[in-house]
Amino acid sequence: SFSALSQPNSVNMAPVPMFPINVGHIDDVQELKKVKKAAIPERFVRDVAERPTLATTPCSPLKNVPVIDFSKLLHGNPNEFHGEILKLSASCEDWGFFQVINHGIDLSLIENIERVGMDFFMLPLEEKQKYPMAPGTVQGYGQAFVFSEDQKLDWCNMFALGLVPHFIRNPNLWPTKPEKFSETVENYSKEIRKLCKSILSFLALSLGLDRDVFEEMFGEAVQAIRMNYYPACPRPDLVLGLSPHSDGSALTVLQQGKGSSVGLQILKDNTWVPVQPIPNALVINIGDTIEVLTNGRYKSVEHRAVTHKEKDRLSIVTFYAPSYETELGPMPELMDKSKPCKYKRYNHGEYSKHYVTNKLQGKKALEFAKIHPKEAL
Ligand code: OGA
Ligand code: NI
């Protein structure tokens, strides 16, 4: 049962199972494709209602994730700045997602992280398995969020590392191959951290708040990186690359690998809208934390990944969240008579634990914080 997992490790808040949980046999999806004429194992075949309907009609331009020109926020004249701030707030209210262009992050960092990520996934299985993601944990190589033998599996291999604060690091999980892996992750993550802080300050301004509110509230923000590798799949109509979920973070920064297939989809007005990759852009999304802090004004939107028949796909994902000690709840400035409080106050460490000890299931994790109208009476 899930309660078997809910014992946080006192050192780093990382959940560790109190006793082994039985997740059954998990096939490595990269190894599956090496087997000739392989049928999709039953554990990957989704129930009919969950299967991705593969879009055949092109999306209208109105159905595209908004694009934010970061250079206008950093160096624009007052008109450009104001226009971009308005666009930012509309994106967060209507989409919960936006793509950032001209973010100022060195292209060599963008390319390097992709290269070491791809090189890592191309290593022999035995090499990657030196860094196993233990059942019920979220760092290392494997499949996260699997808690039972009968749970459907995602068509994806993950490799994840906690980065900041330092005590969440597990040095045994830092790969020695590819050679430049660790150094590249460090360099990339430092720059992404600056970007997250900068985006949060613009989000604050877009809400009419002091630009440093989030920064001051979060303390030493938690940062983690996860690389998702989705091999090509002979039956993309039957499987999911990544189950529908919203992110438990404050902000998520997602880099889509060059030449990767289109795979990320977000739930917008009840339809799954693909996020078309823009070269060198970063995809940003609002996580559960910002949804709670803004009392639901900025949305943590449900998303998933689908696979492709011929092409594989790599995504590099950074999660940026408040320190575990942070107490969260809707900010007073964003509540009034017409906008009553929709979420309770809670500790972010508790929420984190709740998030990582349950399977990914749409926006279910956020139920933890919801005040239902009945209770609010
Ligand atoms: C995630 C995520 C989507 C993708 O890792 O939380 O939503 O395209 N990834 O890999
Ligand atoms: Ni996500």
Question: Which descriptors apply to this entry?
Answer:
377 residues, alpha+beta, 4-stranded antiparallel β-sheet, binds N-oxalylglycine
Report on this structure.
With 377 residues, the chain is an alpha+beta fold. The chain has ten helices and 14 strands. The protein has helices at 29-32, 70-75, 78-94, 107-121, 125-128, 181-206, 213-218, 288-293, 348-356, 373-376; strands spanning 67-69, 97-101, 140-142, 157-164, 222-230, 242-245, 251-256, 264-268, 271-274, 282-286, 303-305, 313-321, 327-328, 346-347. The strands form three sheets. It has an eight-stranded mixed β-sheet. Strands 6-11-8-9 form a four-stranded antiparallel β-sheet, with no helix packed on it. A two-stranded antiparallel sheet has the order 13-14. Helix 3 packs across helix 6 (181-206) and helix 4 (107-121) crosses helix 6. The relative contact order is 0.16. Residues 1-12 have low confidence and may be disordered. Bound molecules: N-oxalylglycine and nickel (II) ion (NI). Nickel (II) ion (NI) binds next to loops. Residues 220-322 form the Fe2OG dioxygenase domain. InterPro entries: DIOX_N, IPNS-like_FE2OG_OXY, IPNS-like_sf, Oxoglu/Fe-dep_dioxygenase_dom, Plant_2OG-oxidoreductases. Belongs to the iron/ascorbate-dependent oxidoreductase family. One of its GO terms (molecular function) is metal ion binding.
